[in-house]
């Protein structure tokens, strides 16, 4: 409904500014097959109207089955004005299918059509190819169209974890330190993420004494309890690896 | 100074050696309420290694269950404080932190939550949760995102004697299980309502403490296991396991303390390691 109003306003401004008496204004618009559009004469006021459909009102409502040109003749004491409206009809395409493969979503797609991607029901700007790389956690679909009026959606796919490789720093806090070998690692992240974090504890010579992988599920604050093997004492290095960022903390085990 | 460290080491050793030895102790526990049977959670804190790490305090305008007006959440490790003030629009709508909470006029249970953009989100996403109850228990929850008319996720809850025993979250368009939690309770002990254990309240976990989501469990939780799955092949991509023990229960059956061993459940961050609960009672 909003889109239709905008078209009407454009017609009015365009023809009044640029077109002189008796000129023909051609306004192009595209609708999805089966939908209706209201065409309004750009000449408002003391006019009589004659549309190519035979109607004599200021506006008409049309729903052409194929691309059609409509015209309106608006007559007043100032003269006769003719405006044309070309209504192109977009036909829905068969639904595309998308698949998720490691770090990308791929959609079936014909080169002659337009494609766009939506994450959580919002259009992703600039994503107009059959492949969407490194999606973040969310629900995705592709949509295809011939002329940009009818968008046919694919099925919905849920991507359970972020696949992006963008890096952002995070804060790691070990508590208590010194400890007896049982402590918490707190990760304070700038944004909610859904990713696997890897924690490796090694002795001062670099020998690995503990490793844990933990899935962070759409969270910005993670607390991970760590229990080292009994008997280990001395200095240890806790290495946290998240999205290519490595954070190393030193902890003393008493 | 040396004596102080010695005490700490003994405590840690004891809890590691016998993590699940005692389910509860109540013989010498204090009585929470002297005059009334209506007590509500006033604070919950998580103490680990002798230091309080996280704490929440709750204030109520009236002691009707699950309708806190103010919640202050403090993380002492990061020194972050979050304050949730409830603005009451009318008897069925409250605003908290920009989120709209819709309550059932009769039961006061939360029927719908419409979230606003949060600073921690990378993109603007608006979540809508719809809660469906049966016999005063939360039966299922639908989750919509950014105005889509199709629900993306559905959680289904299973109870045994009013205790939540299973939670399953599905990616609804493909009907695929993506998250589940299994909960086990002590078979003998019954307590007063204390906490909800809905582990799928990831982004809205704070509201579990503030609002009324139907009948609370009356059981003593002894273990909880959660798993996240990839929707396409069902492969396990995350797991969280935790056991609860060392309950301290008051003479009038309020849970005062408990310990846990294992992972931290994201939606229940205060049930981690050592938890203490305090209550407010009406006169």
Topology:
The complex is a heterodimer of chains A (254) and B (283).
Chain A lengths: L1 H17 L5 E9 L4 E4 L7 E4 L7 E4 L5 E9 L2 E12 L7 E4 L2 E4 L6 E6 L2 E2 L7 E3 L4 E8 L6 E2 L3 E3 L11 E5 L6 E22 L4 E20 L6 E9 L2 E9 L1
Parallel strand pairs in A: 1-6
Antiparallel strand pairs in A: 2-4, 3-5, 5-6, 7-8, 8-11, 9-10, 9-12, 12-13, 12-14, 15-16, 16-17, 16-18, 18-19
Chain B lengths: L1 H16 L6 E2 L13 E10 L2 E10 L7 E8 L4 E11 L2 E4 L2 E5 L6 E5 L12 E8 L2 E9 L7 E8 L2 E9 L4 E15 L15 H5 L8 E11 L6 E14 L5 E8 L11 E8 L2
Parallel strand pairs in B: 1-15
Antiparallel strand pairs in B: 2-3, 2-17, 3-4, 4-5, 5-6, 6-7, 7-8, 8-9, 9-10, 10-11, 11-12, 12-13, 13-14, 14-15, 15-16, 16-17
What's a quick, concise take on this entry?
The complex is a heterodimer of chains A (254) and B (283). In chain A, 7% of the residues lie in helices and 55% in strands.
Rg of chain B, please?
19 Å
State the CATH topology of the largest domain in chain A.
Immunoglobulin-like
What is the CATH architecture annotation of the largest domain in chain A? Sandwich
Give the topology string of chain B: H per helix, E per strand.
HEEEEEEEEEEEEEHEEEE
Helix fraction of chain B, binned, reads under 10%
Q: Which regions of chain B have little confidence, pLDDT < 50, spanning 5+ residues? A: 1-22
Residue fraction in strands of chain B: over 45%
Largest interface: A-B, 41 and 45 residues
How many strands, what sense, and barrel or not for the largest sheet of chain B?
A: 16 strands, antiparallel, barrel
Shape, principal axes of CA atoms of chain B? globular
* Content of β-strand of chain A: over 45%
């Amino acid at each position: 409904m909003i889109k239709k109003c905008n078209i009407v306003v454009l017609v009015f401004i365009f023809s009044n500014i640029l077109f002189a008496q008796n000129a023909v204004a051609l306004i192009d618009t595209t609708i999805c097959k089966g939908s209706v559009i209201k065409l309004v004469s750009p000449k408002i006021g003391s006019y009589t109207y004659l549309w190519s459909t035979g109607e004599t009102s200021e506006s008409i409502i049309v729903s052409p089955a194929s691309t059609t040109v409509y015209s309106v003749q608006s007559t007043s004491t100032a003269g006769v004005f003719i405006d044309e409206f070309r209504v192109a009809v977009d036909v829905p395409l068969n639904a595309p299918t998308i698949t998720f493969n490691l770090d990308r979503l791929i959609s079936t797609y014909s080169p002659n059509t337009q494609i766009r991607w939506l994450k959580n029901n919002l259009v992703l700007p600039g994503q107009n190819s059959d492949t969407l790389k490194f999606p973040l956690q969310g629900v995705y679909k592709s949509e295809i169209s011939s002329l940009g009026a009818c968008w046919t959606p694919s099925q919905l796919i849920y991507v359970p974890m972020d696949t992006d490789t963008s890096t952002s720093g995070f804060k790691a806090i070990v508590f208590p330190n010194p400890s007896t070998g049982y402590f918490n690692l707190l990760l304070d992240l700038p944004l909610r993420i859904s990713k696997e974090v890897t924690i490796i504890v090694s002795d001062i010579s670099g020998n690995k004494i503990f490793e844990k992988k933990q899935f962070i599920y759409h969270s910005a604050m993670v607390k991970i309890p760590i229990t080292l093997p009994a008997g280990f004492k001395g200095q240890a290095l806790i290495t946290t690896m998240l999205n290519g960022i490595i954070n190393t903390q030193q902890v003393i085990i008493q | 100074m040396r004596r102080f460290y010695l005490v700490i080491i003994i405590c840690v050793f004891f809890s590691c050696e016998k993590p699940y030895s005692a389910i509860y102790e109540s013989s010498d526990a204090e009585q929470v309420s002297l005059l009334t049977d209506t007590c509500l959670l006033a604070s919950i804190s998580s103490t680990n290694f002798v230091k309080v790490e996280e704490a929440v305090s709750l204030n109520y305008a009236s002691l009707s269950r699950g309708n806190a007006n103010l919640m202050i959440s403090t993380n002492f490790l990061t020194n972050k404080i979050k304050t949730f003030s409830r603005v009451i629009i009318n008897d069925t709508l409250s605003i908290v932190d920009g989120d709209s909470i819709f309550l059932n006029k009769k039961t006061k249970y939360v029927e719908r939550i419409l979230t606003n953009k949060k600073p921690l989100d990378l993109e603007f996403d608006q979540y809508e949760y719809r809660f469906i109850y049966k016999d005063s228990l939360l039966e299922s929850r639908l989750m919509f995102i950014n105005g889509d008319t199709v629900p993306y996720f559905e959680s289904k809850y299973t109870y045994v004697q009013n205790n939540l025993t299973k939670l399953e979250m599905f990616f609804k368009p493909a009907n695929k299980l993506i998250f589940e939690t299994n909960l086990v309770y002590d078979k003998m002990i019954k307590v007063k309502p204390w906490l909800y254990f809905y582990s799928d309240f990831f982004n809205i976990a704070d509201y579990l403490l503030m609002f009324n989501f139907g009948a609370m469990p009356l059981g003593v939780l002894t273990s909880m296991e959660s798993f996240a799955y990839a929707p396409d092949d069902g492969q396990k991509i995350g797991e969280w396991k935790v056991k609860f023990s060392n309950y301290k229960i008051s003479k009038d059956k309020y849970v005062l303390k408990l310990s846990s061993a294992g992972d931290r459940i994201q939606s229940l961050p205060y049930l981690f390691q050592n938890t203490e609960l305090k209550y407010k009672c009406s006169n």
